[in-house]
Write a structure and sequence with these properties.
Elements (H helix, E strand, L loop, with lengths): L1 H17 L27 E8 L2 E5 L2 H9 L1 H4 L8 H7 L6 E8 L2 E5 L7 H7 L2 H15 L5
Antiparallel strand pairs: 1-2, 3-4
Helix pairs in contact: 4-6
Length: 148
């Protein structure tokens, strides 16, 4: 019985990771205003305030957010192309994210996958985050141009 439960859990975990949501090819961060993460927390952007950057459309909640982004986009774009930071660092794979699960660390935005069984932000925080960041940076350089 115990082995059956563990087997089911393992299968469920594999399915969750293999069926994870993909990051929209053109819409950055699921339409969330990336500037808002650095202020009040994530809020949905509007098509009325949008711009193209690095092949993606970024949406903003206000004209002020759009202006801030336009002045210095690299300050606001999420690390690793908006894919799950933990998955990039640990598995060298591009995994979709829940735009509301994030961390600002060292002035940079990191996004994470989240489901009923797997909150990757918790895993990120429970491990050596500095080592994960370093490995994530290395892995991202190797896979950033790979097709999803």
């Amino acid at each position: 019985m115990k082995n059956s439960i563990l087997s089911l859990f393992a299968i469920a975990t594999i399915i969750i990771f293999s069926q994870c949501s993909k990051t929209d090819d053109k819409k950055a961060v699921g339409g969330y205003d990336v500037v808002s993460y650095f202020n009040e927390g994530p809020v949905k952007g509007s098509e009325s305030f949008s711009t193209e950057y690095n092949g993606k459309t970024f949406f903003f909640a206000s004209k002020e957010s759009l202006k801030k982004f336009s002045e210095n986009p690299e300050q606001y774009v999420p690390q690793y192309g908006g894919y799950c930071a933990y998955a990039i660092a640990k598995k060298k794979i591009k995994m979709g994210v829940d735009p509301e699960i994030y961390e600002i660390r060292d002035g940079k935005l990191y996004l994470f996958y989240n489901s009923f069984f797997a909150n990757k932000l918790n895993d990120w925080k429970n491990e050596d985050t500095k080592a994960l960041q370093k490995q994530g940076d290395i892995n991202w350089e190797e896979i950033k141009n790979n097709k999803d």
